[in-house]
Amino acid sequence: MPAAETPRPRRRPVVLAVAGTALLTGCGIRLEDDAPRVPLVPVRTPLPAEDLLVRLVADSAALAGLAGDTDGPLPSALAALHRRQVTVVRTALLRGGMPPERLADPGPDGPRPSTSVQTPAAPAPTPSGSPSGTPAVPARRRLAAAEAVVLDDLAAVADVGEDLRGPVTTLHAQRWAAAVLLGGAPPVLVDDVVDAAPVARLAEAAGAARYFLEVAAARSSGSRRDRAARTLGTLDTLHADLSRDVPDGAVLGRPLPGPVETGRDVDRLVLDTLLALRATIGGAAAEVVSGDGATGVAGVVRWLGPVEVEVHRWGADLQPFPGLA
User: pTM of the full predicted structure?
Assistant: First the structure.
């Protein structure tokens, strides 16, 4: 009778335990703080300025909600505009390989408009104050402050990847314009001279716009003339800023794009001029930032924000990314 086989050690539980540990590690669950990386498991490389971009999506969503809760046509327009910003930036990040769950985590501080905008104290209750006696801050002022909060990260925009550099820079110009249009003080920006190739071209465009506004102011009267004069003042400041390090190439006269005889002609000339200037500055945003980094970012916002304000004051729609189609 053959001898009974010697029992062989059962290794299946050990193999399963090792496999289970590998799976946990591959899913990002580390059993020890110093656990080694599992071979052959791909590690995602973060996108340039990823934290800023994730927070920007969260900020835009929070602003859309805040604007939607504020009465008036301007806040309503801003709510739609911010929703568009969320869609565009979020889609670009997902196409760039960012996992959806990463977009759901804006960081430890959360979206800034809902946490960073504090309600300032007032000396005495107003008719709109709360029943507790604490004065209520006008919703538009709170929204204006929330729009300006994003400008705290302006320098970091220079680190954004090339494909998003233009849109993200012009988005910050939109925030600047919204804060001003809502009644807030113009956000203060660094005003260093920008050293980038497009500056001379932008100075020429600002000079042409300034000339057309001079014509518009001269050929109008009453409140229209006052409005044209205010816009001309904005363009004077813009042209002086852009021309600080550019050789003087002033042109005494320029051909008008059409007749300027009636009030409607004046309105058309001003609006067409401002829309063209917005497109010129917005279209050059990425190149300016690529040429001069954080100084270029501040320059674009400093130039484009006031133009966007004037565009709106003359009746055109605000854009989520001013100057970009």
Answer: 0.80
